[in-house]
Amino acid sequence: MNIPGTVVPTEKSSGPGGEGFLNGIFAVTSGLMLSQVRELTGLDTPALQNWVKRGWVSPPEGKRYNIDQVARILIINMLRDVLQLEKIAFLLGYINGSVYDRADDIVPESVLYDYICRILYVCGGSESKADVEQTILSCTGDYIEKIPGATARLHQALKVILLAMKSAQLKKEAEVMLATLR
After folding, report:
1. Residue ranges in the chain assigned as alpha helix (H)
2. Which tens digit of pLDDT belongs to each residue from 67-80?
């Protein structure tokens, strides 16, 4: 299993959260070049450039992607097998508005990525709806709402993301089972 949105095996992570992983990468650099993002994600250059061109990721500054841009790329990458790219863009816009305006963000993408990783780590099995909601509350306990209604919005989006990730897991399991039918 890989760290969500990457080709990096989970054993290379410093824990369940994405914050430690991203901070480890950005501790030694102020940004990642396109080639480094490609290596981290397994994506090709045209895909990444297309995401920037379509406004799903803000353009790199000085040819470098910052921590929030990389986190956004990782989120899109982890969801693209189960949601259409336009729906992922809508979901991220629901959380943070325009990629070109940080003032409308309810949470930095690097923090959002960390929440997703923590929730996925805790919700490894099949939980009830109440368990999922409790896990989301627990994993986002440090969130401070700056815009009225932002917490509810964040929690709703995280439920969608968790369900999408669970469906991706089930899809992979079904494909493995299907491959054994001979």
Report:
1. 18-26, 34-41, 45-53, 67-79, 85-96, 109-122, 129-139, 150-180
2. 999 999 999 999 99
